[in-house]
Specification:
The protein is an alpha/beta fold. The chain folds into two domains: about 40-125, Leucine Dehydrogenase, chain A, domain 1 (Rossmann fold, 3-Layer(aba) Sandwich); about 150-275, Rossmann fold (3-Layer(aba) Sandwich), CATH 3.40.50. Helix content is about 40%, strand content about 15%. The protein has nine helices and ten strands. The chain has helices spanning about 15-40, 55-70, 85-95, 115-120, 135-140, 150-160, 180-190, 205-210, 275-295, and strands at about 45-50, 75-80, 105, 170-175, 195-200, 215, 235-240, 240-245, 250-255, 265-270. The strands form three sheets. It has a five-stranded parallel β-sheet. Strands 2-1-3 form a three-stranded parallel β-sheet, with helices on both faces. The longest helix has 23 residues, at about 15-40. It starts with 16 loop residues before the first helix and ends with a helix. Nicotinamide-adenine-dinucleotide (NAD) binds near residues 241 and 279.
């Protein structure tokens, strides 16, 4: 079934993630200046890339560029793919002990042979700007502070531009990953929304989605969410990013939603230019938060 009254793409009300992220980067830059003036040094972020996965190279490059924009000192560690797990753990210990490093980011995925959870668990929770350490995961699920993963944090900031009160809203989250689906569900529960978390084994997903006031689609399944899945006036956050190749051989990025079928939605995030820029901007604001926590300690 398709939406017979599908609007043209220009009728879809888009949430401009790029502009909102730019505001957050600017706000972060001002906070960095304040911290530097008060403490004599700007916050520092260490970014560790092991191996040369092309997508990871691009992400790390973007993160470093945005750090510069916000005035955050960035330290890059590029290690060969055959790096020994022990050497990586030793580097983390060194950075944990270094007061000039406020945040530590290990770019995922790590090469085979390195236990990612062992590595992530080694980062001090206060420097864990990705929010993946079990202490931060626990704090998030108990609603007791801690550093929150960047993509869910960015999703909430985008939603906050169109929703003032979440109490009682039906939210359907598609995808239950540790980096997006589960943490965003926790944040939404904290705001008193009624959250349904769905995944690849969920039955009747279109029917469940159609009940939602808000859909957060984080499945990595291109254009999974069709117009008829979305009730009129719903807000749709499209987290998915998949690179597809068109018949003419050109590649482009697509999200999890058939955006041009969503003219009846209240607001939709575009791909690219929606959640993606927010993720990096939130990494910077998490670094500033970690720096403040370290200096206030
Ligand atoms: P993941 O592969 O870890 O998890 C995907 C989840 O979606 C799983 O729970 C799976 O059960 C569910 N799923 C997959 N196909 C489904 C389907 N057809 N129907 C219902 N559920 C389905 O993925 P992830 O790391 O959470 O990432 C999800 C997507 O979000 C990817 O496209 C990823 O690139 C993107 N992403 C974007 C950002 C960003 O900054 N914009 C950040 C993180 C992830």
């Amino acid at each position: 079934m398709t939406n017979a009254t599908a609007p043209s793409p220009e009728q879809v009300r888009l949430i401009d993630g790029k502009a909102i992220a730019a505001q957050l980067v600017e706000q972060t830059r001002q906070e960095v200046e304040e911290i530097a003036a008060a403490h004599g040094a700007a916050p520092g972020l260490a970014v560790v890339l092991v191996g040369s996965d092309p997508a990871s190279e691009v992400y790390v490059g973007r993160k470093i560029a945005q750090c510069r924009k916000a005035g955050i000192r960035s330290v890059e560690h590029r290690l060969p793919a055959d790096t020994d797990e022990g050497a990586l753990l030793a580097l983390i210990d060194e950075m944990n002990a270094d007061p000039a490093i406020d945040g530590i980011l290990i770019q995922l995925p790590l090469p085979k042979g390195i236990d990612a959870s062992l590595v992530l668990d080694r980062i001090l929770p206060g420097k864990d700007v990705d929010g993946f350490h079990p202490v931060n995961v626990g704090r998030l699920s108990s609603g007791t502070g801690g550093l929150v993963p960047c993509t869910p944090l960015g999703i909430m900031m985008l939603l906050d531009t169109v929703i003032a009160d979440y109490r009682g809203l039906n939210v359907v989250v598609i995808g239950k990953s540790n980096i997006v689906g589960k943490p965003v569900s926790m944040l939404l529960l904290e705001r008193e929304a009624t959250v349904t978390v769905t995944h690849i084994e969920t039955r009747n997903l279109p029917d469940i989605a159609r009940q939602a006031d808000v859909i957060v689609a984080a499945a990595g399944a291109p254009q999974l969410v069709r117009g008829y899945w979305v009730k009129p006036g719903a807000v749709v956050i499209d987290v998915g990013i998949t690179r597809i190749t068109d018949p003419d051989g050109r590649t482009r990025l697509v999200g999890d939603c058939a955006t041009n079928e969503l003219g009846h939605a209240a607001a939709v995030t575009p791909v690219p230019g929606g959640v993606g820029p927010m993720t990096i901007a939130c990494l910077l604001s998490n670094t500033v938060r970690a720096a403040r926590m370290a200096r206030d300690a």
